[in-house]
Amino acid sequence: MRWGGLLLLLMVVPAALWWPFAPRIGPGAGSGGGFAAVDEFVAERLTAARLPGAALAVVRDGRVVHVRGFGHTGGGGPVTPASGFRIASLTKAFTATAVLRLVEAGRVRLDAPVTDYLPGFRVADPRGGRITVRHLLNQTSGLADTGFPEQTMPPPADLSGRVVSLRAARMVSAPGTRFHYFNPNYDVLARVVEVVTGRPYETALRTTIFEPLGMRGTSVVLYGRGPRGAPPPENGHVLVYGVAVARPELDGFLGGEGSVVSTADDMARWLVVQSTGEYAGRRLLTPASLELMRTPPPGVAGTAYGMGWTAERAPDGSARLTHNGVLSTYYAEASLDRASRGGVVLLFNSGNALAPYHAIMQGVTAILDGRRAEPGLPFAAIELPLTWLTILVLMVRGRRLVRFRAWAARRRGDPVWRHLLVLPWLFAPAVLLAALPALTAAFSGRVFGQHQLLRAMPSVYGLLGAAALTGLVLAGCRVAFAVRRPRGPRADALDGGVRQPVR
Question: TM segments (predicted)?
Fold first, then answer.
């Protein structure tokens, strides 16, 4: 009864702390009216999931119609439409636009081998010489994380260093035959921009995209915490058992695939350009180039990826372009409706693989389309069971360790096999924990290190870590006990009642 009552108390406390003491988030600074239902939905979902902050921008028919901030930044101030967010892989559309502008100017050919612009580009496969600029843009180069796990490797010093590092990359398919989402494809494209323009990647984006569009709050930060580019934005957050902890972004090279830092105000302008080709009379791309960005490559089965955008069908059947961006402390997602030339971007200053970021985006687009937002699975329904299971494992395993001597006295006559039979169960959490990167790669095709996965799923790692640590300690105790195994009357009976002489 004592243990049952304590267990019940420890299960009730996290649930009691989750709901009553969750920070209440309401719509903050912004502009544009007539979107109260959207703002209320976002605020309610942020509060329910205990997400610290977000920024929203909505465009319709080529016009910015609504921009709003919610919650607080990593520094504690309110999120506004001018607050900086890392947009991660939404950067790819910027890189693709920069390349297509060079294509329109006749300075780059889409079907030319990359070696025409980067003579030093090569990979650990003779087929690498056939990789074209188009293959990189469409993510059909034949390179993949499984052949070059760049997320687990030391980062390069710059974009030219990234190109050199790919000499060790193993191709997993022939160029132009299969889709593999591979971040360094866009690093190579960014290096092509540098070489062709004769300017650093960040300077090329600033002068050809940011400044013409008046995106004054947008910059390029090539590293999580690095010296190049503009100063990084404020810390984002890691979500640990429902608690938002402000943390700096992990060190690492972001390059042409994830280095842009922007604001909701600026991303609204960017959505207008991506839906119409121009903003305030400044045209960046022709309609033909825009259509090319939106169109998956023909002849490649199973891919909906264009160039920095994924072509999808919404629940109402409309054609949409989507892309998300994921870092350890930030998440971003954008969606464009091709028919209405409208779009939405949501920027979050937190990162967690289990948090309902995409569900919030789906709810916003549903409301804007006149549909009902689906409730989805509450974040608490994921985090609280993980919390309870972690507590339960620690309590049960801790009790067994505390009472191990008493257990050993009762079991001193058991045969060795009975003690060893339970070892696989005790070792299983440690094996699973060690195998998480391999399992992630097997199911997603992406390769991440343990530290990155820990940041992405702290509560999962907490549960597995608690089970692995206590399991290894218990296994060690059982093995030591089985090896030393005191002999008693029960052991004599198992030996036929005859003590065996010691030889």
Answer: 377-396, 416-439, 459-481
